[in-house]
Amino acid sequence: MGHETRFARAGDVRMAHWRAGRVGAPVVVCLHGWPETKLIWERTIDPLADAGFDVIVPDLRGFGETDSVPDGFHDIVSHASDIAALVFAALGCETATFVGGDLGGPVAQEVALRHPDRVEGLVLFNCPLPFDKERMSGMRTRAPRETADYFIRQGTDADALATELSSPAARRAYIARFYGDRNWAHPGAFAPEDVEHHVEPFADATRLRATFANYEAAFDPAKRCGRPLFGPNDIHEVLVMFGTSDAVIYPDFDLMAAAVFSRVWKSVRIDGCGHFVPWEQPRRFTEETVSFLSRSR
Length: 297
What we know:
single chain; 297 residues; alpha/beta; Rossmann fold; 8-stranded mixed beta sheet; 34% helix
């Protein structure tokens, strides 16, 4: 399951990434969210590569083995700029399909809107979506209020929270809850050793603090490097997957996606699966993704 971590310069960021499959094959870029790193793709990178694709799996800026940057920005626009620079400039890919959940979802959407001719399609699961009040009338567009406490704390009180998490053990314990009793994942989806594996990159104080910055950008425009295009997409075909056990995402995620993406190729509800779809249901995730990627081959 181990993959060699490679590094490439994307603008001002030294980006860590894995790459599997044949260079020259159709490119698939898999983007993690929070509290994740590229490790969340360990169960799907090789099956996607074996299906005939060139798979690129980066750590976003400030996450995992990718550096933070002097400008201090960690918003959607900065992440999307990094990913476009990595994939299209540093790695020389002409086009790619972008796959993302959680934070990786809006980053993928932003890349698609900024580089429409270079994006072949989108695979989105359990992630933030553009809001359209009229089109989404009657839909359940908010997760339960009690699941939003982390978002508010990390977005408005990040320094104090980081200070409270004063040891590696405290930081690991904080992140571990998102894989366990906060009801993001389907019950039992992560064995104790899996949780330890995924939380370890967040034990470092500087890196954990950097990952809070995207939440700060949601509340403070001064923490954004630019205005996101984040909105409806009528250009690209989209595969939508929804792990229905997820308590932190919109209960009507799949219906909301159909309201803002006019070219939904397929919408799939996956029961017995929560927020971390490629880890929790890797076979189903891979099957659906490969089917989408193969639609025009």
